[in-house]
From TrEMBL:
Domain FAD dependent oxidoreductase: 5-348
Keywords assigned: Oxidoreductase
Pfam families assigned to the protein according to its UniProt record, in alphabetical order: DAO (PF01266)
GO terms of molecular function: oxidoreductase activity
A cellular component annotation (GO) from this entry: cytoplasm
Name of the protein described by the UniProt record: Glycine/D-amino acid oxidase
Species this protein is from: Modicisalibacter ilicicola DSM 19980
SUPFAM superfamilies the UniProt entry points to: FAD-linked reductases, C-terminal domain (SSF54373), FAD/NAD(P)-binding domain (SSF51905)
Length: 372
């Protein structure tokens, strides 16, 4: 059997966006994924396609987020055309709420700095601070104790589960072989490429991409790649379906296409525990009612916890192994927002083996972590 061009370890939104992009460019790809009990950020996230707040301290990340958000409409349209799956994507702008005056002050200072950080940002990044009164037109019924928030037209939302489903469907239609319940136990270099050992047998390819989220911690160092990601837990609450509120999405709370409000932006150091806690759910519910007092009467119907995939500085890691050419490691905590870029620019750079040249800011070298 002909050896595949690429093995991708990890069938989350990062691995599948790159698989889709590579397959679209004619590459032969096999994706190996774990089973349903694995840690999977792609199945527990908030579904925001979000530019605000990205890249503070690293303007190139802000640019990448903005570029990806701009490409999202075409990306979503193409996936729907190929698969018939609607991603519930919309880009009507979004608001990041400031819950007190200090948050409002420091946010505005950060964004002003970001806007001056490069010519691209100065020309393209649009945002505005709106006080409570101004916000009520885009967030009707906003609570009286919210002082304001930053608005940006670039922000939007999607259904992240439909995104993942569409990426699988589109990739398979392009010939990508997807193997669920196939955990990779060992990755090693061979004479002609790489070999993955799993309980279901061995798989080989000329090149290998680690898109294993937190699983990188077990597999990366063997190929000279950075294994420095850590889990950051987020808990999410969902209300019953409510009539359309005409409210722009916020990272704190957003109304989904089916009517439920998705509440949650917690960032917790809880190790590998992806459970929920009563204290955190209570605090989320209180914050939701502070933002939209009419939700006091809403029933909660679901809750979950999920683990973010966090690099040491919080910025994406796009890495090529120096000790094992042809091995790559991809980690980021904004895989929904960046999906359009991952399927396009990132997949092309990997195909052409110019990842470090094209995206040097995101190399593992910046982390000063020796890959042992
Ligand atoms: C609560 C929460 C809210 C979030 N909200 C947003 C948001 O609004 N917008 C946004 O852009 N991002 C958001 N994110 C981040 C986003 O979900 C992640 O960036 C993205 O899902 C990461 O995708 P991934 O494919 O790298 O990781 P994962 O989804 O974790 O996928 C990794 C895959 O690798 C597989 N794997 C691991 N080890 C192995 C192995 N040894 N063998 C085979 N397979 C393996 C796992 O089974 C898994 O399927 C949020 C995350 C959380 C937790």
């Amino acid at each position: 059997m002909k050896q595949r061009d690429f093995l991708i370890v990890g069938g989350g939104v990062v691995g599948m966006a790159v698989a889709y992009g590579l397959a679209r460019a004619g590459q032969g790809v096999t994706v190996l994924d774990e089973s349903d009990d694995a840690l999977r950020a792609s199945r527990g996230n908030a579904g925001l396609v979000w530019v605000q707040g990205k890249g503070v301290g690293m303007p190139r990340y802000a640019e990448l987020s903005l570029e990806s958000a701009k490409a999202w409409a075409d990306f979503a349209g193409e996936l729907t055309e190929r698969t018939g799956i609607e991603l519930e994507y919309e880009q009507r702008g979004g608001v990041d709420l400031c819950l007190d005056a200090e948050e409002a002050r420091s946010r505005q200072a950060d964004y002003a700095e970001l806007q001056n950080a490069s010519r691209y940002m100065a020309a393209n990044f649009r945002w505005e601070y709106l006080d409570r009164e101004a916000l009520t037109s885009c967030l009707p019924g906003l609570g009286e104790t919210i002082p304001g928030g930053t608005w940006s037209p670039h922000d939007g939302q999607c259904n992240p589960l439909y995104l993942l489903r569409a990426l699988y469907a589109a990739s398979r239609a392009l010939g990508v072989e997807t193997r669920p319940a196939t955990p990779v136990e060992r990755l090693e270099a061979t004479a002609g490429g790489f070999r993955a050992t799993t309980p279901q047998g061995q798989f080989t390819a000329e090149r290998v991409i680690l898109a294993a989220g937190l699983g990188a911690r077990q597999l990366a160092s063997g190929l000279g790649l950075t294994a420095a990601v850590r889990p950051v837990r987020g808990q999410v609450l969902v209300t019953e379906r409510r009539p359309p509120g005409g409210r722009l999405p916020t990272p704190q709370i957003r109304q989904t296409a089916s009517g439920g409000y998705l509440i949650g932006d917690t960032h917790e150091d809880a190790g590998l525990d992806k459970g929920v806690t009563l204290a955190m759910m209570q605090s989320l519910a209180e914050k939701a009612v502070r933002i939209y007092p009419d939700l006091e009467a809403a029933r909660l119907v679901r809750s979950w916890g999920a683990l973010r995939v966090m690099t040491p500085d919080g910025h994406p890691l796009y890495e090529t192994s120096t000790t094992h050419p042809g091995a790559y490691n991809l980690n980021c905590h904004s895989g929904i927002t960046l999906a359009a870029f991952h399927a396009e620019g990132l997949a092309e750079a990997i195909r052409d083996d110019r990842l470090e040249q094209s995206f040097p800011h995101f190399s593992g070298a910046r982390l000063h972590v020796s890959a042992s």
